[in-house]
Write a structure and sequence with these properties.
Function: Catalyzes the reversible transfer of the terminal phosphate group between ATP and AMP. Plays an important role in cellular energy homeostasis and in adenine nucleotide metabolism.
Number of strands: 8
Enzyme class: transferase
Organism: Saccharopolyspora erythraea (strain ATCC 11635 / DSM 40517 / JCM 4748 / NBRC 13426 / NCIMB 8594 / NRRL 2338)
Distance between the termini: 26 Å
Keywords: ATP-binding, Cytoplasm, Kinase, Metal-binding, Nucleotide biosynthesis, Nucleotide-binding, Transferase, Zinc
Low-confidence stretches: none
Bound molecules: BIS(adenosine)-5'-pentaphosphate
Shape: globular
Helix content: 40-55%
Oligomer: single chain
GO molecular function: AMP kinase activity; ATP binding; zinc ion binding
């Protein structure tokens, strides 16, 4: 079980390339909850050649969102699995206000709420550089960067020795579309969660390690706040 007072139902927000996937594993293992990435689930379905994968790919390659109905059904199925009963770190979901309301409603049925939303903030010019230099491991799915987070041997994953490739939706047109969609559909979620009092904004410019330290500081502050609230005065 995660340490007392630690949030266990957490959402990671941020534009494409903000570093959500890069930070997610460390956060999930600290909180002892599964990392659930809708993008990863779709990419796995594409690799498997399933019907879901076929539909998802058509939208993803052009930088569009996969339709809400498909995404929501898939997320609610995943949240119903045993390992998610103790909590989760959601990465890439929700992505618009309808999805956020759906998540609230799904959690409400089991008496739960989103406890913390970490918003990684990165200016647009950094995002384009991050995405154009990103390389993915075809085997373990880890993301690297040719300049900012390079592997020891070019083209080979440090973690599992798998080969690296560029993501299909990291080409220029698709990136532009994803950023526009983010501004229009996803950025308003910060206000949605701010109103609920669960939003923490993290400056995600700096090295991967520096950003990890800032994220950790937010988690520690959140846990300390929860413990203080739980302690009768
Ligand atoms: P998804 O996979 O969720 O993509 P995304 O949100 O666009 O985010 P990315 O994976 O591109 O970026 P990231 O923030 O994880 O950055 P990373 O850590 O890799 O979704 C893909 C598609 O699936 C969507 O476009 C949509 O079509 C569909 N989809 C998914 N969810 C959906 C939903 N809920 N509804 C509908 N459709 C949905 O980092 C980026 C790069 O920067 C890497 O190279 C990394 O090494 C580097 N980097 C990381 N941190 C730093 C740092 N601090 N300094 C320098 N470089 C860094």
């Amino acid at each position: 079980k995660a340490a007392q007072g630690q949030p266990t139902r957490v959402v990671l927000l941020g534009p494409p390339g903000a570093g959500k996937g890069t930070q997610a594993n460390a956060i999930a293992s600290r909180l002892e909850v599964p990392h659930i990435s809708t993008g990863d689930i779709f990419r796995r379905a594409i690799e498997e050649g399933s019907d879901l994968g076929l539909v998802a790919r058509a939208h993803m390659v052009s930088g569009e969102l996969v339709p809400d109905g498909i995404t929501m059904t898939m997320v609610s199925r995943r949240l119903g699995e045993e390992d998610a009963s103790k909590g989760f770190l959601l990465d890439g979901f929700p992505r618009n206000v309808d999805q956020a309301r759906y998540l609230d409603e799904t959690l409400r049925r089991s008496g739960d709420v989103v406890e913390l939303v970490l918003e990684l903030h990165v200016p647009a010019e950094d995002i384009v550089r991050r995405l154009s230099g990103r390389r993915m491991c075809g085997q373990c799915g880890r993301s690297w960067h040719v300049e900012f987070n390079p592997t020891r041997v070019e083209g080979i994953c440090d973690t599992c020795a798998g080969s690296l490739h560029q993501r299909e939706d990291d080409h220029q047109d698709s990136v532009r579309r994803r950023l526009e969609l983010h501004e229009r559909e996803t950025a308003p979620l910060a206000g949605y969660y701010q109103d609920k009092g669960v939003l923490s904004r993290v400056d995600a410019v700096g090295t991967v390690e520096v950003v990890s330290e800032r994220v950790l500081a937010v988690l520690i502050a959140h846990s300390a706040g929860s413990r203080a609230e739980a302690t009768p005065s």
